[in-house]
């Protein structure tokens, strides 16, 4: 029993899957950035990307089962040659579609078409912007990223994002600390981005940094691993358990493997039923009631106000 499971057991809580609400597809690890906090370890030189056969099988599954939400992520998901196929087959199937967008991809010469395309297909955008101050963003995501992000947000505003179309921004702390209350931070973001740059957005999502991937390496190098896990454990909030994303989200890897969540995917914890499972091996009904594999990293989702791919939980 790991530390997270002990937290649950001490409060008489259990964690199992409910009905499927979100199919989250990680199309690969290639990205035009290499951010310090990235739990995926994405970078320009990564080669792990979904191929045509897997994309086709995922598309067939979406057509058959029509998940309420399809959440496309990466890396930079737009770098997948199958990105538009997955968007369009999902929209044709009646699913809401989310694009996990790093903003700077819009500023590259090859992807200037993105704002118009996403708006035309009614795709919701969840965009990384870990602060409204340039020096903090560049420290975490690379020199010049803030300026490019602001330019991209202005282009998204120009086609209706933040007003007519949903545009969520994602905050995460620069180091090993918990996010402040999401509502208060959102008010600060809204005031500063509107005053400085005329930018509008729909909502802010405050996420805790997961102790996996590059952030875990940074914690260990700095001798702060144990302190961060202690902070997460001491901040456990039982009220967040009911809303954990793993209860209603299925994570799909670039080879079609399935996982309880995107974080488990990065740890290679593929779901099994006597054998490793792929998306085409199951239906949404098969998932209901299944147990969820947990580890110490799960404490990041239940610390303080809670954290998931969809923001605070409490």
Could you please describe the fold and organization of this structure?
The chain is an alpha/beta fold and 314 residues long. It has one domain (3-302): Alpha-Beta Barrel (TIM Barrel). The protein is 35% helix and 11% strand. The protein is built from 12 helices and 8 strands. It has helices spanning 3-10, 52-65, 83-92, 114-120, 134-141, 145-158, 182-197, 213-221, 225-234, 262-266, 284-287, 299-302; strands at 22-26, 69-73, 96-101, 124-128, 167-171, 203-206, 249-252, 258-259. The chain has an 8-stranded mixed β-sheet with strand order 6-5-4-3-2-1-7-8. The longest helix has 16 residues, at 182-197. The chain is globular.
What is the topological layout?
Elements: H1 3-10, E1 22-26, H2 52-65, E2 69-73, H3 83-92, E3 96-101, H4 114-120, E4 124-128, H5 134-141, H6 145-158, E5 167-171, H7 182-197, E6 203-206, H8 213-221, H9 225-234, E7 249-252, E8 258-259, H10 262-266, H11 284-287, H12 299-302
Parallel strand pairs: 1-2, 1-7, 2-3, 3-4, 4-5, 5-6
Antiparallel strand pairs: 7-8
Under CATH, the homologous superfamily reads Aldolase class I
How much helicity do the residues have? 25-40%
Largest sheet, in brief, is: 8 strands, mixed
Question: Oligomer, anyone?
Answer: single chain
- Number of H/I helices: 12
- Provide the β-strand percentage band: 5-15%
What overall geometry do the principal axes of the alpha carbons give? globular
Helix-strand topology string: HEHEHEHEHHEHEHHEEHHH
Which strands sit side by side, in order, in the main sheet? 6-5-4-3-2-1-7-8
- CATH overall fold name: TIM Barrel
CATH class: Alpha Beta
Gyration radius, to the nearest Å?
A: 19 Å
Number of E strands = 8
Task: Please identify the structural class as seen in this structure.
Answer: alpha/beta
Could you list the spans in which at least 5 consecutive residues all have pLDDT below 50?
none
N→C terminal distance: 26 Å
Q: How many structural domains in the coordinates? A: 1
Average pLDDT confidence is 90
CATH-scheme architecture:
Alpha-Beta Barrel
